[in-house]
Amino acid sequence: MSAAADKIAIDTSGPQLRSGALGLIEIIGQSLAAIAPTLTPALNISVVAGLAGIGCWMAYFIGTIGVVIVAASVGTLAARHPEAGAYFVYIGRTFGPFAGALAGWAMISAYMFTAVAVALSFAIFLGNFLGAFGIELGMLPMVAVMLVFVAAVTYGAYTDVKMSSRAGLVLEVISIAIIVLITVLFVRVRGTVIDRPQLQIAAFNYGAVFSALPFVIFSFVGFESSATLAKESANPRKNIPLAVIGCGAFAGIFFTFIAYFMVFGMGDDTLTLGASSAPFSDVAAKAGLGWTSVIVYFAAMISVFACCLASVYPVPAYPYNILPYAFFAYMIVGAIWFAMLKSRSPQTLASIQHDMEG
Fold first, then answer.
1. What architecture is domain 19-356?
2. What is the pLDDT of residues 223-248, one digit of tens each?
3. All residues at 6 or more sequence positions from 163 whose CB lies less than 8 Å from its CB, including other chains
């Protein structure tokens, strides 16, 4: 044993993360649910279509290549440093604990604000869903529904991580299946999958395509979130890279094909698609499948719940490793997420020093 190791006393007397509790399925569920692929055709694609025009699918294709390259890098780092802190550990071991703490708290903010933003979109989709039946909720009933929604997400995050990860995966698979099925229906109405204007790639305005890339990347937000579960993974050196790279690639392929078929379904009218507040529903309506809008909104609500759950769950994993370097900020987050942190308490300073020194 080295002299450095002799100086480090690792405290394992307190509660620890449940090492080895998650298999590959649960790890994949975390990344896929955080990406929430259904929300792109249901809402996010409008901006990309408005900017990239007929080259919308090309923007997603280029974005997919970039995301897969980044995912491969994250996968490599996760295999080398299978710790709960993810970016905090990766950056901290390279640039020091202060830089690592800044990165870690930036990621905590990103996850928390993503959860807030996605939760607010639930109210939008619920309003559209009920509106299809002629029902309109007032302010107080909507607030009550949102409180129930937040409580359900909090309960799901607080309970067994395996259950919540699997629930996120199942919900996303259901919502994606609904989107794919409706896409098949309106492609069938068109009678062909060939859209010649979209296949003339030399005619694309690549300046517009590249200007849409920031919004394309936004669709992939969360693909790396499974790296925060490395400590709880049964085989993190294998499962985390597979989940991060696999989910990034799958989402990119899904986005690329959906973008192609949605532009095709709108008759290549990207201006109308770009101005739409419910793009997928409008595409379905143009194909004479307006009745499917209710199903689309339902799928979107399912996806929102899964995404919120996946966005909330990684938050406690960051304070778990950042505590000695950002004590006061940790106390603030700890107050907010007390119920979750009770079952996932942080390591001691000696354990963190051991992690940082590798």
1. Up-down Bundle (1.20)
2. 988 888 887 788 888 899 999 999 99
3. 156
